[in-house]
Amino acid sequence: MEMGMREPFLRRRTMNTASQLAVVGADVSPIESLDYEIVENDLYKQDWRSRKKVQIFQYVVLKWTFALLIGLATGLVGFFSNLAVENIAGFKLLLTNYLMLKERHREAFLAYAGCNLILAAAAAALCAYIAPAAAGSGIPEVKAYLNGIDAHSILAPSTLFVKIFGSICGVSAGFVLGKEGPMVHTGACIANFLGQGGSRKYHLTWTWLRFFKNDRDRRDLITCGAAAGVATAFRAPVGGVLFALEEAASWWRSALLWRTFFTTAVVAVTLRAFGEYCRSGKCGLFGGGGLIMFDLSSTATSYSTPDLIAVVFVGAIGGIFGSLYNFLVDKVLCTYSIINEKGAPFKILLTVTISLLTSCCSYGLPWLAKCTPCPLGLHEHCPTVGRSGNFKNFQCPQGHYNDLASLFLNTSGDAIRILFSSGTDNEFYISSLFVFFTAIYFLGIVTYGIAVPSGLFIPVILAGASYGRLVGSLLGTICGLDKGLFALLGAASFLGGTMRMTVSVCVILLELTNDLPMLPLVMLVLLISKTVADGFNRGVYDQIIIMKGLPYMEAHAEPYMTNLVAGNVVSGPLITFSSVERVANIMHALKVTGHNGFPVVDEPPFSDAPELCGLVLRSHLLVLLKGKTFTKDRVLTGPAEVYQRFGAFDFAKAGSGKELKFEDLAIDEEEMEMYVDLHPVMNRSPYTVIETMSLAKAAVLFRELGLRHLCVVPKTPGRPPIIGILTRHDFMPEHILGLFPQLKHQN
């Protein structure tokens, strides 16, 4: 009864079976729900009674220590990823530039496209053969995990490895993608790795680590990891905390706010320390590495009524473009899923094809641009000497530059920096900005979905910045705002139109640019673009979650749920156990079903009448059967014998891939006829709702409490003590509308 089977992107089924398939990264994977509820059984209560103050202190210290380690590790990974990207991409661009200066244009293209193809194929091979879950942004998967959805590969060590190196190769290959989304996934993977609760295989079984063998504490660590990822990617520590609060986390509390803030502060200090080291020129082609990536603080910001009208226009059109972006990404992902299903070679072939298309656009389109004489009185070289700069020579004669080449033949970060730069009103032709905007807009759409770690933030910022600068150039005679500020507002409008985040994006952009006077205009643009885009479709991450088939629980119930009650959607047949159950019955239930929770009913002689006394988890039954605490007669054994045989942490959740499976049990025929007392291990206080409760209320309760199972009990006496269990699947629109097709017209 766990969740229903759905085939992502393709036809949907609504059979209420025990597992579900969803797309994780670029591959179909079985998923389950997480156990965020505290199982208050006898062992748990005994453990808390026996805990000393020093153990509670150890637990608190360890939580803060893990927050420190997550911030430190994520910051280090982010720094070395930047270091690798800047040096690999820098070498490629220097080689291309050198060959162009020698007028060996064909060799320059072959070198440029060849480097991109090799890097793209390497990234695709890593994703296709080692960790398919590492493909894509990773933010939808992390968001789903924090909502209570688990797949064994979402946060696996192999996913972490491929996410880091695949992202380096993908960004260096010149794809229109960013490493910001993958950094969020990387931070979550690091947090999950630290929160595994130790490993017997590698002799890491320190007693303190056992406190984290549960989904609740891992959830908090992964929230810290997601915040650290944003803080690392954008060098925006406060923005990272707000991103986790606004977009990633489904449950939040003040204690978690403190720890995420501490984690992102550690990230900021780590990046600052290594950035100072790079200022001495010891990091190769890597730049200074300051915390402010695109400093606009020196730009004078003053605006009038015509400027505000232009800002409203930028926000409204940005919202339309953002919603169109989401619509096209949806269509592209559906198409790519058909190709990706054919196997790893087709994933690599698709990636290589998009790489060749990107290389042709990046190298070929600048040939359409006119050569522009270098402006006088510049503080930098023109044409640019070296890898990055505003004035790429490309095919132009000495003393001239190619404005399109300056945008295309740079890393994404440098291109954004050029577009954001102030005092450069006449640096770009309107035609060049239009060509660049069109190319980046559509390349970003067709790139997302290939088997490469790829973020959406940078493509959206890049397209938005070029759009904003284009609008600023068209309105140059009407508005007094600097073109670089228009680029910032354009980027904000695109982020609001695609991501549908407001507070976190606003703070991230301000931390990126160090331009606090722009706060009112950025807020206005974000609010307008989000409002406009919401009239067309969902945010891009919510849309991807639906397309991937992840059963995400929204914070609000659907309107049609108010017309149903909890009893309408429970599915059967319901399998229950007696409080003292025959081993053979339990073994049969575990074998023929994939259910993860079973109601336990007390019956005479253990009670006067049948009554629901608890809920026992599948994982706990496996441990109990493995321990073989059986009796020949159907009698209560009491908790004492269980306390001697087991500890509370024997029933704690194992790390990735370490859980006990049904196949690990070895029960002989004699033991099959014996009995086992379930009282010590069952949750004696499961959450229950009456069958007549509104389904909308039940859905909100289920989501807010982070439940995996919600027992439905009858309203009237004289019936069985439980009529069903609500799981995540039972609240999904596919299941409900499959049972009640007439509600489709009311939705």
Automatic annotation (TrEMBL):
<comment type="similarity">
    <text>Belongs to the chloride channel (TC 2.A.49) family.</text>
</comment>
<keyword id="KW-0406">Ion transport</keyword>
<dbReference type="InterPro" id="IPR051280">
    <property type="entry name" value="Cl-channel/antiporter"/>
</dbReference>
<keyword id="KW-0869">Chloride channel</keyword>
<feature type="domain" description="CBS">
    <location>
        <begin position="561"/>
        <end position="634"/>
    </location>
</feature>
<dbReference type="InterPro" id="IPR000644">
    <property type="entry name" value="CBS_dom"/>
</dbReference>
<keyword id="KW-0677">Repeat</keyword>
<dbReference type="InterPro" id="IPR002251">
    <property type="entry name" value="Cl_channel_pln"/>
</dbReference>
<feature type="transmembrane region" description="Helical">
    <location>
        <begin position="428"/>
        <end position="450"/>
    </location>
</feature>
<dbReference type="Pfam" id="PF00654">
    <property type="entry name" value="Voltage_CLC"/>
</dbReference>
<feature type="transmembrane region" description="Helical">
    <location>
        <begin position="516"/>
        <end position="533"/>
    </location>
</feature>
<keyword id="KW-0812">Transmembrane</keyword>
<keyword id="KW-1133">Transmembrane helix</keyword>
<dbReference type="GO" id="GO:0034707">
    <property type="term" value="C:chloride channel complex"/>
</dbReference>
<feature type="transmembrane region" description="Helical">
    <location>
        <begin position="485"/>
        <end position="510"/>
    </location>
</feature>
<keyword id="KW-0129">CBS domain</keyword>
<feature type="transmembrane region" description="Helical">
    <location>
        <begin position="283"/>
        <end position="303"/>
    </location>
</feature>
<keyword id="KW-0813">Transport</keyword>
<dbReference type="GO" id="GO:0005247">
    <property type="term" value="F:voltage-gated chloride channel activity"/>
</dbReference>
<feature type="transmembrane region" description="Helical">
    <location>
        <begin position="109"/>
        <end position="134"/>
    </location>
</feature>
<feature type="transmembrane region" description="Helical">
    <location>
        <begin position="251"/>
        <end position="271"/>
    </location>
</feature>
<feature type="transmembrane region" description="Helical">
    <location>
        <begin position="309"/>
        <end position="328"/>
    </location>
</feature>
<feature type="transmembrane region" description="Helical">
    <location>
        <begin position="221"/>
        <end position="245"/>
    </location>
</feature>
<dbReference type="Pfam" id="PF00571">
    <property type="entry name" value="CBS"/>
</dbReference>
<keyword id="KW-0407">Ion channel</keyword>
<dbReference type="InterPro" id="IPR014743">
    <property type="entry name" value="Cl-channel_core"/>
</dbReference>
<dbReference type="InterPro" id="IPR001807">
    <property type="entry name" value="ClC"/>
</dbReference>
<keyword id="KW-0472">Membrane</keyword>
<protein>
    <recommendedName>
        <fullName>Chloride channel protein</fullName>
    </recommendedName>
</protein>
<dbReference type="InterPro" id="IPR046342">
    <property type="entry name" value="CBS_dom_sf"/>
</dbReference>
<feature type="transmembrane region" description="Helical">
    <location>
        <begin position="57"/>
        <end position="85"/>
    </location>
</feature>
<feature type="transmembrane region" description="Helical">
    <location>
        <begin position="456"/>
        <end position="478"/>
    </location>
</feature>
<keyword id="KW-0851">Voltage-gated channel</keyword>
<dbReference type="GO" id="GO:0009705">
    <property type="term" value="C:plant-type vacuole membrane"/>
</dbReference>
<keyword id="KW-0868">Chloride</keyword>
<feature type="domain" description="CBS">
    <location>
        <begin position="682"/>
        <end position="742"/>
    </location>
</feature>
